[in-house]
Specification:
By secondary structure, this protein is an alpha/beta fold. It is built from 13 helices and 18 strands. α10 (about 330-350) runs parallel beside α13 and α12 (about 385-400) crosses α13. The structure holds pyridoxal-5'-phosphate (PLP).
C-alpha cells in the first residue's frame, strides 16, 4: 500500500511489535489480518480523531470498540481521572466511588437490584454464567452463533452437528468437555429456539444473548424472537442474560433492554452484563441481577468471584464522569441524530452508485453491509463479499476515515463527531463506492 515503507513509522513499529508481541498486537482484530496492510499505531487522540505514528489524522469510528462515547479526552472526564489519580491508583479495600457507580448504574438499568464491578467484559460474562449456574443448580447454557461474550472457555464454541449435540470449541486449548454444556443456536430462529428448550429446557441455567448483536456487525434480535426467549426462559426457569457490554449506555441510556421494554411492556432480562461505556475507556465492567440471584455471590453465597483491581478507583472515576455526561438531557437524541445522518448519507451514496447496501443504527452504534438487505443472522452477515469490504476499508483509510478493520464489527459515533466529520465521511465513502461500482 505504501510506496515509502522505510519512512512509514507504523510499519517500523509493527515490525518491532511483532518481535515481542504475538502478531504485534494485544487483541487480534487490531492486526488488520482480515483487511491486509499495516495497522495504524496510535500516537494520540482527541475528540473524534486519532493520529497515527506518521502524524496522519483519522476520524475514529471505533472509539476503542465502543467505550469512547464522548469522544477522546472529554475535559470533565479527564479532570475526574486526574483528581482520582493523585488520590491513589488502587487500594484493595472498598471505596465510596464504587458505591456511587453501582447506584448510578442501577438507576439507569432498573432490571437489576445489585451489581458487581469487574475489570473486563470477558470477566463479567464469565462470572455471570457461573452465577447463573450456581443460582439455578443447572449446567447447560444457550448462546447464539455470531454473538461474542468475551473469551471465557465455555463461550468459545460453535454449533455441533444437531440440536441434540452440544458445541465444539472454536479455539485450540479449550477442551471439548468445557463446552459440552453449551448449546449454540442460530440468531433470530424461533423454531430452533423452541426445539432446544423442548429438548434441554429443564437443564438450562441460562440463555445469553447480545440483544443487538455488535459482533456480527449490527443485527437486531427481532421483537418476536426476543419475546419468545423471555417466555421460554420464564417457563423453564432459565435465566435470560443480556450481554450489553457493547449496547449498554450506547444504544440508549437504559441499554438495549429499554428498547425491547418499549415494544414488550414489562420486559426485563434476569441478568445484565455491562462493560465498554461504563468504564469510559478504563478497564471496568459489571454484571447484575435481582437481589436473590446476586446474593448467591461470595461473600454472601456459595458462588465464588473476586478481583484484585475490581472497582478500581481511577476506573470508577472515569466511568462515573462518563455516565454523568451521557445522562444529560438530550444527549442520546443528539447522538442518535448524528449517527442516523451518517447511515442515511452512506445509504444514499451507495444507492447513487447502484451498489447493494443496507445499514442500521441505534443511538451511537451503527452497522452497514454490502448486501441488498439487512441480515438477521450470522450466515447472512458472512455472505458479504470480503474483498469488496476490504477495498472499502482501505479506501476510507486513505481518506482519513477509520472504521473497524473487519466486516463483522459494528461502528460507533461519539458526541464529539461534528456534522463536518460526518459529511467528510459520506463524501469519502461516495468516492470509494464509485471505485467499487467500476470494479
Ligand atoms: C467487547 C465485548 C465483550 C468482551 O469485553 P472485553 O472487555 O473485551 O473482555 C463481551 N461481550 C460483548 C457483547 C462485547 O461487545
Amino acid at each position: 500500500m505504501n510506496p515509502h515503507q522505510d519512512q512509514d513509522l507504523n510499519h517500523t513499529l509493527f515490525e518491532r511489535a511483532r518481535q515481542v508481541i504475538p502478531g504485534g498486537v494485544n487483541s487480534p482484530v487490531r492486526a488488520f489480518k482480515a483487511v491486509g496492510g499495516t495497522p495504524r499505531f496510535v500516537n494520540k487522540a482527541q475528540g473524534a480523531y486519532f493520529w497515527d505514528a506518521n502524524g496522519q489524522r483519522y476520524i475514529d469510528y471505533i472509539g476503542s470498540w465502543g467505550p469512547m462515547i464522548l469522544g477522546h479526552g472529554h475535559p470533565a472526564v479527564v479532570a475526574a481521572v486526574q483528581k482520582a489519580v493523585v488520590e491513589g491508583f488502587s487500594y484493595g479495600a472498598p471505596t465510596e466511588r464504587e458505591v456511587e457507580l453501582a447506584e448510578a448504574i442501577l438507576k439507569l438499568v432498573p432490571s437489576m437490584d445489585m451489581v458487581r464491578l469487574v475489570s473486563s467484559g470477558t470477566e463479567a460474562a464469565m462470572s455471570a454464567i457461573r452465577l447463573a449456574r450456581g443460582a439455578t443448580g443447572r449446567n447447560k447454557l444457550i448462546k447464539f452463533e455470531g454473538c461474542y461474550h468475551g473469551h471465557a472457555d465455555a463461550l468459545l464454541v460453535k454449533a455441533g452437528s444437531g440440536l441434540a449435540t452440544f458445541g465444539n470449541p472454536t479455539s485450540a486449548g479449550v477442551p471439548p468437555e468445557v463446552v459440552q454444556h453449551t448449546l449454540v443456536l442460530e440468531y433470530n430462529h424461533i423454531g430452533q429456539l423452541e426445539e432446544a428448550f423442548a429438548l434441554h429446557g429443564n437443564d438450562l441455567a441460562c440463555l445469553m444473548i447480545e440483544p443487538i448483536a455488535g459482533n456480527m456487525n449490527f443485527v437486531r434480535a427481532s421483537v418476536p424472537f426476543m419475546k419468545r426467549c423471555r417466555e421460554l426462559c420464564t417457563q423453564y426457569g432459565a435465566l435470560l442474560v443480556f450481554d450489553e457490554v457493547m449496547t449498554g449506555f450506547r444504544v440508549a441510556l437504559g441499554g438495549a433492554q429499554s428498547i425491547y421494554a418499549s415494544a414488550l411492556p414489562g420486559f426485563e432480562p434476569d441478568m445484565t452484563v455491562l462493560g465498554k461505556v461504563i468504564g469510559g475507556g478504563m478497564p471496568l465492567a459489571a454484571f447484575g441481577a435481582k437481589r436473590a440471584v446476586m446474593e448467591q455471590l461470595a461473600p454472601l453465597g456459595p458462588v465464588y468471584q473476586a478481583g484484585t483491581l475490581s472497582g478500581n478507583p481511577v476506573a470508577t472515576a472515569c466511568g462515573l464522569a462518563t455516565l454523568h455526561q451521557i445522562s444529560q438531557p438530550g444527549f442520546f437524541e443528539a447522538l442518535s441524530r448524528q449517527t442516523r445522518h451518517l447511515v442515511e448519507g452512506l445509504q444514499a451514496a451507495a444507492k447513487a452508485h447502484g451498489l447493494p447496501f443496507s445499514a442500521d443504527s441505534e443511538g451511537g452504534m451503527f452497522g452497514f453491509f454490502l448486501l441488498p438487505q439487512l441480515p438477521s443472522n450470522y450466515p447472512q452477515v458472512m455472505a458479504t463479499n470480503g474483498s469488496r469490504f476490504n477495498h472499502l476499508f482501505h479506501g476510507l483509510l486513505a481518506h482519513g476515515v477509520y472504521i473497524a478493520p473487519a466486516l463483522y464489527e459494528a461502528g460507533f459515533v461519539s458526541a464529539a463527531h461534528s456534522s463536518a466529520d460526518i459529511e467528510h465521511t459520506i463524501a469519502a465513502a461516495a468516492a470509494v463506492f464509485g471505485e467499487l461500482a467500476a470494479l
